[in-house]
Amino acid sequence: VTSLLVRDGTVVTMDPRRRVLDADVYVEDSRIVEVGTTRSTADTVVDASGAIVVPGFVQAHVHLCQSLFRGLADDMDVVDWLRRRIWPLEQALDGPALRSAARLAIAEMLLSGTTAALTIETVHGTEEVLGAVMETGFRAVGGKAMMDRLEPGTEMVGETTDEAIQRSLELLRAFHGAGDGRIHYAFCPRGARNATDELWALTVRLAEEHDARIHTHAAENRAQTARLAATSGGTDVAYLQSLGVLSPRTVLAHCVWVTDEEVAMLASSGATVAHCPSSNLKLASGFAPVPEMLAAGVNVGLGADGTPCNDNLDMFTEMRLAALIHKPRVGPEGMAALDVLEMATIRGARALGLEDRIGSIEPGKRADLVVVRRDGLHAQPGGDRDPVGQLVYELRSSDVDTVIVDGRPLVRGGELTEMDPDELRARASESVRRVAVRAAVEV
Ligand SMILES: [Zn+2]
Fold this sequence. Notes:
The protein has about 450 residues and is an alpha/beta fold.
């Protein structure tokens, strides 16, 4: 047994009572054993005095494979972003580039306190991405993008229905439950209209059969949503509802352009919406009605989306924006700090189907913990202030001191313990040069 003690911190537990405790957290192997312990020693002791201990952040929507494309697709809407940049670039990714992209994304997320993510990858090579999750110690639920239908406007089509399913099942067999449950497979039709009705039906059946998540994009861009609604089946969420896709295992990224009826469908089905405020702002997609979704009882998580539409993978940024951007419309009490921290932790865990394992600091849960310092001048004056408000409004990724995933310390003193930043830089630069030439995109 390997033991670890996080000592003297202010623990924001996110337990059912949302308690904040001055307590030590004692971990054996990958699990939290005690919160508030009399133990004074362990194999590893993390000093959290003066700091906040918070559950590792859970991002409900990212694309690890896109991290090499940071800064390559500025100032476009999502249709041009996909058609002119992201789709050609993704198609040009080779195995080593996919692995270096995933490692870079994971390193960036770990350093900013994210310990788990739900991810849609590209059509090919997802074994490289999930392999990187396996070796780095990160926690992820995700899968390859499935695309067997040409969506008008974006010029993206990838594979036949049979290829989409067979490739997904191969990955599921290799990775579902791997790494002692750190990785789970998800079936990921790329968008509501990138999959045929047949592929959606197979996705629903196989996700139930294998107890896997379904993750896709929906109702992101106003013109795109209206155009596709006119071609077939109504607006995205209603369309997915008509195909039987909406259920507690379904996570829809964005849902910016949804009707009141669709918000009710999301609530009654138990589906999760992954809110991506930076991405929705940068791609000029709009403001998702998140306060209305929460009021209706929809589970909402938070995500940074892909690097080229953000351009960071930093949960502190997403929390701050999620709290701020809706207030001018709904008033200062809408989107309170605790709502936002729930989205970043326990609601994200629910999105990933891992609410019984992660998302809060409680005995029996997996030890995904983050120690955040609050001695920076941007967080002064110090003293006994509400740590929830501090996390959402004041603190930054540079305040992250220690990050533990499944009991394994992957960041200490603000530095990666197992990955080498120089190697990540070198591999990323070398990979993106090769990929951009192949995609004929100027870097
Ligand atoms: Zn996305």
